[in-house]
Structures are given as C-alpha cells and as structure tokens.
C-alpha cells in the first residue's frame, strides 16, 4: 500500500482498478485541472490495461466531459453530474474542478460505477470553502517545534528554514485532499512569528512555489499573517487599521501577493488572542481590523479569515464572573453587520478550545449578517495526540447537524456560509498523520465539508474501502468489521477515560497530553472544574452562574440552563452539582465517573485485541505502527482512569458502589 517513501493513504493504486480497466473518453478541452484528470486516468490505465483518449472513442465505457451547455449549467464550478446509460458512464462538469471531483467520485464507487443503469444525479459541495489550516512554522520554534500541536513529524511545506525544494510530497498531499473534497490550505501557523511574517512580503516566492504544487488539484493557498505586519515588515510606527498609511501598506503588500499568486485565497488572522497583536491596542474593533485587510483583498477576490478565538488568558481563577466560554460571543455579536462581505469570522466549534466534549459555540447562528466559518481540530491536541485512536467524525457530524435555533431552524452546516476549516493533522511522517488510523479524521473532515449531512459511519466505511481495498484481502469481512470496530466508537471511548461529563481539560499544562487533574485549576487560563469536597462543575447558568447558558438562542438557553434538562454529557460544563446528583442515565455523577473510566480502559483493551487479530490482513509496517500506539494508548488510558478516579474518591469520600480498587 505504499508509494515511494510515504503511504498511499486513501489513494492506493488498487483503488483505481475499476477506472483503469475501462476505455475512457475525455471530452474536456484544456486547462491544468483537465490535464490532472487526464494524468490520473492515464496512470490508472497504464496499470490496469485500459485506454484513455481525448477525442473519438465511440465505444467509451467512461466519458468525462466538460460542457458549457445546459447539461453543465447549475452545477457550479465544483459540481458534477453522473449518469449511466447503455453501457456508458458519463461524468459531466462545467469545468476542470468539477471534473476532477467527478473522477474521484467514480473512483470511490469502483465497479459500482459501471453496473446497470443510473439516472442522472447531480453533486455539488454544500460549502464553498473546505479548508485546512496548517499550524506550521518555517523555522523550528523553541517550544512548539516545527508544527505547533503537530503529531505527525515535521512540516510538509517547510524544511531547513525555507520552502522545501522538492514539492512532490506537497503535490501528493494536494491529490489526497482533492480526493476527499478539500479546496483550500493555509500553509503557516496562526501564531505568526518573526520569520514567518516575511512570507507575506520578501518570501512570497516560497508561498508561490507551494501554491503551484497544490493548484493542479484545485487547491487555493492561503497565508496566516500578523496584524502587526505594517510595523514588523513595513517599518510603520503603527498598525492602526484606520490609519491611512497602514491601509495603503496592506493594499500594496496584497497587490504584490497577487502578482506572485494570481489565485491566492486570502489571509488568516489570529488577533488579540493569546498575546498576538490586534486592533484593541488602538482602541479599534475587530470589524475595523478585519475590514482593513478585507479591503486590500477585495479587488482580487480574496478573503480574510478572522478568528474569533479572543479571550483573556490572564484571568483570576477565583473570579467566576469572567467566564472564558462567554468571550467570543461577547466580543463579536455586537459587531454583527459591520464586517465586509469578504471578511469571514472563523469560529471554533465550541466556546472553549477543542475539548473532547463541548457544546456548540453560541456565536454560530447569532450573527445573521456576518459570514461565519466553523473551525474544528483534526490535529488531536486534546484527543490523544495521534497516539490514541480517536475518530472525530461523530463529533463533527453532531456539531454540523446542531440547530442553534432549535426546532426546524438551520443547522450549523448551513450557517457556516464562510466554510468549514480544520487544523490539519498531517505532517512529513510516512503515514502522513503519525497514527495511521488518524488518516480517517483527515478524510472524514473533507467529506463532511463537502456534505455536512453525510452519515459519518458511511464516510468511515468509504475510507476503509479505499485505504485497505478489502476486496483484495484474504478475509474482507474480518478486515472491514475489525477496522470499523476499532474506529467507530473511539471518540466515545476516549471521552470515557478522560475528563468527565463535559468538564474539560484536566490535562498536563503546556503540551496537553495525559492527565493532570488540577493542571489548569489554579492558573490564569480560564479552564476550571471547581471540584471540591461537595461537588464539581462550572455553574454557567443564568440564574446563579456566569450567564453563559443565556447566550444560546431558541430552546437551548433553557435546556442548558437547568440542571434538570441539561444533557448528561454536558452537565459539568454548565452546572456545579453534588457528587450524589442523579443523571438522566440513573447513575450518580460520582458513580458515572468511576464506571465510565473503567469502561473506557476495557474498550481500549478490546480494540487492541481486535487490532492484533488483523495482523495477517494489514500491511506489516502499518500494522506495527498502530500496534505500538495501542500500547501507549492503553498505558495512558489506565493513567487517566486511575488519576481521575482517585482524585474524585479523595475529594468526595464516596466509595465505588461496585467495590473496585481505585488507586
Ligand atoms: C490552542 C492551542 C494553541 C493555538 C490556539 C489557537 O493550544 O497552540 O495557538 O489554540 O487556536 O488550542 O490559536
């Protein structure tokens, strides 16, 4: 399953067998994306004995066509139509991008694309921007390393302090991304340090080289920039977004970016957040800040992705009135309607920071006159750092299906008009993602961004089929079932042995791996669980707490605001309750904590056993890598169980009703 010195992931040669055996007619004019489609089909034919022609070919079994006519109308530039009649399967698109997505769709269908008849079906992405943010540093950062929160080796883009000379791997990355629907990549860390700031100006050529490698797969390149760029790079005395010289600087710099990269996507900005510069220093609003950059990008069709992760990271833990969860909503909702059309607010899916369980951010849905993008984290910072199996498809799907106004109101997947963004989990590791099974997160993200209503379980099975081509295995059923079993419930398993009932954190400060029950409890980050001898949880109700629950619209303010109606899994996020409080499940909080920690470890033991049983069916290198990581996952899960359980035993003094030993 490997090509060259890296894993073929979900595009192993065998996945192209059905296409590669056919006679294909490409009726599509020219252009780089059409050339990409031709190259893909020609390669597959070279391997499996088919043939591809660019004209003629009356007896074609697969027709890939670009049409300006009515058949292509309404598909948009990324959509495609698929039909099968009289022994010919036809993919129709209005341009190269749609054709490429159509080809990958046929690859996913395999032989099914060439059976029977198929009435015309149309496919279009639900979201126009499907983006990966790389938190990659060009220079290795002394604390964060090269890839901030990266668990898959070094950067795919940068090595030895500059853009890689050989961008073959970047091209291969673009290919994998196109095959799951991603169409935008930001190539550097949102924390823009001094070296990386220069990518915007004197080092834009390096970004252009990366953009060239990604373009053949329909991917636009974006850049994280520092809000202080006019000072850092332009020697201006201020970065005040309303200052004429500052605005002129952004216009000039942006014009030069577009000279180098004609289809440049735009900027990503982290401002006034965790020490990054921003408009607050000048008494300006975030709309003023975002709009200054948006104005510079506007003539070229670029977008500024302005992050809403703005909060006070120097708070006093004793002061319960400053609730970090409230921050994004409090800062941004008053500005609704003030942002330029090409300014997109990029909102983390939860109000805190990518914990294993958070409610959906109340900001989503609360700014009807602003374009929002939703940001999720594929890199597993708080979900096992790619040493634990934690497939996040069900979590993301829950977020995307959530209806902020309740009832039959729009879903998050519809409100994310500015796109869906994930912090990438890929690096230069031979398996791309460190843990080979973490590839499933990258793939699932792309497919959910294309169709937020997709069933994540079906996406998982699709990933399994493509990556492991079970039909060629000695035991397809054991292989497929085994892979599905170890991945499908893995998020729930992870939740069971880590911080309970939505309370979050309890991780080692700094690197965020492994348990530290009071790690953040007395520090200024705003991430507390308030456990004492009587109870645990954060009172975010409106009646007695921080009022955060009151930020929700529709029925949610009430649902979350009351201990009676709050869902169990979020109880400690919203409420401080006694250990004896009885959950909807019928268990007390303390017994739930004990039971689920034991269950979580048992589930990891079982998954490890299932994986061991697939040794004869999985490529040995991949099998060994996963097996080795299961040892660490199990060690860590036991550590979590023991620390969390003994902590709550000592705090509460309530013994385990089932008499198990807690150390
Ligand atoms: C946190 C990470 C930090 C990021 C920050 C962000 O710990 O490294 O810089 O999010 O999203 O989760 O900006």
UniProtKB/TrEMBL annotation:
This protein's record includes keyword Hydrolase: yes
Cross-referenced InterPro entries: A-glucoronidase_C_sf, GH, Glyco_hydro_67_C, Glyco_hydro_67_cat, Hex-like_dom2
Keywords: Hydrolase
Annotated ranges, domain Glycosyl hydrolase family 67 C-terminal: 433-660
Domain annotation Glycosyl hydrolase family 67 catalytic: ranges: 122-432
Protein name as catalogued: Alpha-glucuronidase
UniProt source species: Streptomyces viridosporus T7A
